[in-house]
Amino acid sequence: MDDGELGDAVDRARSGDRTAFGIVYREVHPMLLGYLRGLIGDEADDIASETWHDVVRDLRGFRGDGQAFRGWAATIARHRALDHLRRISVRPRTTSLDDRTDEPATSQGSEGVALENLSTERALSLIAELPQDQAEAVLLRVVLGLNGPMAADVLGKRPGAVRTACHRGLKRLSERLSGSEEK
């Protein structure tokens, strides 16, 4: 879905169209979840839920196109993730989490789904090994598809700094992948 179509769906969702909100959610949620998994790992689903709660609460006040909506949602997600990280640093979790996750049904065969999940999991684990500024830049630019200025707004940095961090992160990922293929 291009930014214009997403922007139209957001406008309709702001007016109370539940079907349009479903379209927005299905378009943005997977990318948002990937971004959060790269930031905080296993607890991304919970933080994504908090993010969508805030999005629904504040949607009527949002103004902008599809790209701006992705950036706005990413900013909310980032704030929720940073709040979560601060919270657990003060009061660490003492219970174990259930490793099982329910994935939505797809029309793809189980082999394709398994390969896609493995490659996504591998990519996110490699991104998580990058320095934080590079990891966030790669997640925002590649996973969420934000442009440089929008990613910069989310991170509170200059667009050039975000583009540089993304470039360096992607270069490191490429080097890591090249090194693992040679082995």
TrEMBL record:
<dbReference type="InterPro" id="IPR014284">
    <property type="entry name" value="RNA_pol_sigma-70_dom"/>
</dbReference>
<dbReference type="InterPro" id="IPR007627">
    <property type="entry name" value="RNA_pol_sigma70_r2"/>
</dbReference>
<dbReference type="InterPro" id="IPR013249">
    <property type="entry name" value="RNA_pol_sigma70_r4_t2"/>
</dbReference>
<dbReference type="GO" id="GO:0003677">
    <property type="term" value="F:DNA binding"/>
</dbReference>
<comment type="similarity">
    <text>Belongs to the sigma-70 factor family. ECF subfamily.</text>
</comment>
<keyword id="KW-0731">Sigma factor</keyword>
<dbReference type="InterPro" id="IPR013325">
    <property type="entry name" value="RNA_pol_sigma_r2"/>
</dbReference>
<feature type="domain" description="RNA polymerase sigma-70 region 2">
    <location>
        <begin position="25"/>
        <end position="87"/>
    </location>
</feature>
<dbReference type="Pfam" id="PF08281">
    <property type="entry name" value="Sigma70_r4_2"/>
</dbReference>
<keyword id="KW-0805">Transcription regulation</keyword>
<feature type="region of interest" description="Disordered">
    <location>
        <begin position="93"/>
        <end position="114"/>
    </location>
</feature>
<feature type="domain" description="RNA polymerase sigma factor 70 region 4 type 2">
    <location>
        <begin position="122"/>
        <end position="173"/>
    </location>
</feature>
<dbReference type="InterPro" id="IPR013324">
    <property type="entry name" value="RNA_pol_sigma_r3/r4-like"/>
</dbReference>
<dbReference type="InterPro" id="IPR036388">
    <property type="entry name" value="WH-like_DNA-bd_sf"/>
</dbReference>
<protein>
    <submittedName>
        <fullName>RNA polymerase, sigma subunit, ECF family</fullName>
    </submittedName>
</protein>
<dbReference type="GO" id="GO:0006352">
    <property type="term" value="P:DNA-templated transcription initiation"/>
</dbReference>
<dbReference type="GO" id="GO:0016987">
    <property type="term" value="F:sigma factor activity"/>
</dbReference>
<dbReference type="InterPro" id="IPR039425">
    <property type="entry name" value="RNA_pol_sigma-70-like"/>
</dbReference>
<dbReference type="Pfam" id="PF04542">
    <property type="entry name" value="Sigma70_r2"/>
</dbReference>
<keyword id="KW-0804">Transcription</keyword>
